[in-house]
What we know:
Number of helices: 15
Largest sheet: 2 strands, antiparallel
Shape: globular
CATH superfamily: NCX, central ion-binding region
Low-confidence stretches: 1-25, 222-226
Distance between the termini: 42 Å
CATH class: Mainly Alpha
CATH topology: A middle domain of Talin 1
CATH architecture: Up-down Bundle
Order of helices and strands: HHHHHHEHHHHHHHHEH
Radius of gyration: 20 Å
Amino acid sequence: MPLFVVRRGTMERAAGSFSFTNALKRRMHIGRVFYWLLAFIPISIIFGVFTDLKIVTFFTSILALVPLARIMGYAAKEISLHVNPTVNGLIQATFGNMIELIIAIFALRQGPQLIPLVQASIIGSILINILLLDGLSIFVGGLRYRFQRFNNQVIGVSSTMLIIAVAGLAIPTVYYNLASPQQTQHLGQISIAVAIVMALIYIAGLVFSLRTHKDFFSAAEPVPAGKEEPSMSRRRAALILFLSIVIASIVSEMLVGTVETAAVSLGITQTFIGIVLISLVTNVAEHATAINFALQNKISTSIEIGLSSAIQISLFVVPIIVFTSVIFGLGFTLVFSLFELLAVMLAVLIVNYLSADGQCNWLEGAQLLSVYFIIAIAFFFIQ
């Protein structure tokens, strides 16, 4: 099973089920909570289209994106079960973090005033996956098992990729802060070049884990025996995926349109909204899956979910955002705030340190959580 793909698919075991539309007779097992959250999709559209209550639209849109992210992951998994492992990995790499990408594109279309929101949501997704998701998994698993062991060699590959991601995000920012005003005119070119390198190393990671060294990864963690069978046809899954992307685009556009009003009304910054709120709701489905595996004493899989998603955001989604910005002239570059970069560096540093010995306990999970909450508190007060 590939390391650099967020494994929303092969790890779906949640209880409960629901029908996506009346036309779809086959039921999708995504969890009862996500079923109830579907009600916020029409609610958010009603408030967004027929009222001027932007605060209500903001919160209902956020809640509506939670089940949509889950459905998109489920549909991508169903499609991937019909194809070979290589195409499987590419499908899940493409759609694993689609919600974040959709929100970023709509935010950039609103103008340069929302660039901080896009940057914050990128950093927030990385932090949440590294610190909150892995921290919760290790903590909850540690409460049931005294020690949990994982393959630190495999986790080490992901950790190295994260260090490369940090370098890619940091170098343009450092250049911007140290270069003269005349030199900063090359910032766009630097961002494009760095994005190309980041995309290439991500592709290299996929080839490594899906083709040349897939046996190394498949032996790293116990995966349920036997091949998982798809629960629906490829055509039906593709239809569900397409519809969920369309609906997510509508909801995301309404969400982005209310961010500035919500920030002023709630007394918080766009940065905090991106770092905490948006990044949290777009990753809730992964948290549920990772915690479920931690409770089954499959902590390597839980940790990989978080690290793989963080890698996917930084080395796959970020280059796409940069390329899209260049094509449509949206003005996005890889210049983040120094505090955002410091937060990511600390997150990667502590994960690398805690994963060195190949075992974990509940206290190490609590330590990861403490770092996340410290960072979130600081971002709440940063203007």
